[in-house]
Specification:
Residues 44-155 form the THUMP domain. Keywords: Methyltransferase, RNA-binding, Transferase. GO terms for molecular function: methyltransferase activity. This is Class I SAM-dependent RNA methyltransferase. The protein folds into 2 domains: 3-154, VC0802-like; 176-215 and 245-372, Vaccinia Virus protein VP39 (Rossmann fold, 3-Layer(aba) Sandwich), CATH 3.40.50. The strands form 2 sheets. A 7-stranded mixed sheet has the order 2-3-1-4-7-6-5. The chain is built from 11 helices and 14 strands. Helices cover 33% and strands 25% of the residues. Helix 3 (70-79) runs parallel beside helix 4 (106-125). By secondary structure, the chain is of the alpha/beta class.
Length: 374
């Protein structure tokens, strides 16, 4: 049976996520603002949750109902038969996104949806589900847009950017989903060396290693929300999971991360151990000025600090100049990518860019700067 799904993604990553979903077998894939619509069966839902590297969560679209105001929303939700998706013995929670002129408070809208569902159960069974905001059996998403409400089930639960491998995080860590998307934006392929000279807790290097070894990022998670659904097919999930385990490769390029902060290097090494490939990716405690290219060609990528205030920006001028000098002097024959959220700092690199890609990093407008180093 074919169902309608919607994958939520970071702003600007819709096309990359669409290509991932197409590669996994999604049908009628269509990018939308911060999301991707697609169709497929239950196996595809499991596979996308397990394999997609750039999305936050997958919603199973149940119904689009009229919601001109709170009363119409209540009646529309109550009219929909919830019995196939939620039994009174299960707990649930409602998350609301979007708004309209008469439904502009997400908490109130979520309460209306919740009230309609439990009232339906009370009339039908004489009992109702309990609300559990911490660990619910079923997560219902209500998205308001114009005078319509899209009712969905959240199949992922905790955001998919939380792979499960990263118990240790450095300061201002890059989301795993964004790191994976940025790697897709570069010229890097799993047969090329990769270096991150400002690795922090190792997100770029670890995500690249997952790609190189063809490891599904969802293998490290303890649970997905769909595993509590009434229609959960454990045999099908076991088959999807087993195939993912068997897909791992053993060929590995040179992937290196280094950082001047010894503590975050230890964190990166801990994260690599959590993935089971501490021997595959190398992390070094090393100052930027001492970084050397491990091969005559490859891809360098890094996410240096941006500097939030003017005084911080000015203090970072010498650091960015040093970064440009290291690239120019030590990485001839390489292609470098710098994620920068400050135009004044990017000027201090002192190299000509060959490409500039707009990127949103947690609400901060950034640019992925490409440098061809000759």
């Amino acid at each position: 049976m074919t169902y309608q799904y919607f994958a939520t993604v970071g702003r600007g990553l819709e096309d990359i996520a669409s290509q991932e979903i197409i590669s996994l077998g999604g049908d009628n894939v269509k990018a939308d603002f911060t999301g991707v619509h697609f169709q497929g069966d239950l196996e595809l839902l499991y596979r996308v949750n397990l394999w997609c590297r750039t999305i936050f969560r997958v919603l199973w679209t149940l119904k689009v109902v009229p919601s001109y105001d709170s009363e119409q929303l209540y009646q529309s939700v109550k009219k929909f038969d919830w019995s196939d998706f939620l039994s009174p013995s299960q707990t649930f929670v409602v998350h609301c996104t979007g708004k309209s002129p008469r439904l502009n408070h997400s908490h109130f809208t979520a309460l209306q949806v919740k009230r309609a569902i439990v009232d339906q159960q009370q009339e039908k069974y004489g009992v109702r589900s309990d609300i559990d905001t911490e660990n619910p059996d079923v997560i219902i998403n209500a998205h308001i847009r114009e005078n319509k409400c899209t009712l969905s089930l959240d199949s992922s639960g905790e955001s998919l950017h939380r792979r499960g491998y990263r118990p240790a995080m450095g300061r201002a860590p890059l989301k795993e989903t964004l790191a994976a998307a940025l790697l897709y934006m570069t010229d890097w392929t799993p047969d090329l060396p990769l270096v991150d000279p400002l690795c922090g807790s190792g997100t770029f290097a670890i995500e690249a290693t997952l790609m190189a070894l063809n490891i599904a990022p969802g293998l490290y998670r303890r649970e997905f929300a769909f595993q509590r659904w009434n229609n959960y097919d454990s045999d099908l999930w076991d088959d999807v999971f087993r195939k993912a385990e068997e897909a791992e490769k053993d060929t590995m390029p040179i992937i290196v991360g280094s950082d001047a902060d010894e503590d975050v290097v230890l964190q990166a090494q801990s994260n690599a151990r959590a993935c089971g490939f501490a021997d595959k990716v190398k992390f070094y405690h090393q100052k930027l000025i001492d970084v050397e290219a491990p091969a005559d060609h490859g891809i360098l990528i890094c996410n240096p600090p941006y500097g939030k205030r003017l005084s911080e920006t000015e203090q970072l001028f010498p650091f960015y100049k040093l970064l440009g000098d290291v690239l120019k002097q030590r990485f001839k024959g390489w292609t470098a990518y710098i994620l920068c959220g400050n135009k004044e700092l990017s000027k201090k690199v002192g190299l000509r860019t060959s490409r500039r890609i707009p990127v949103d990093n947690g609400g901060i407008p950034c640019t992925l700067l490409k440098y061809d180093l000759y």
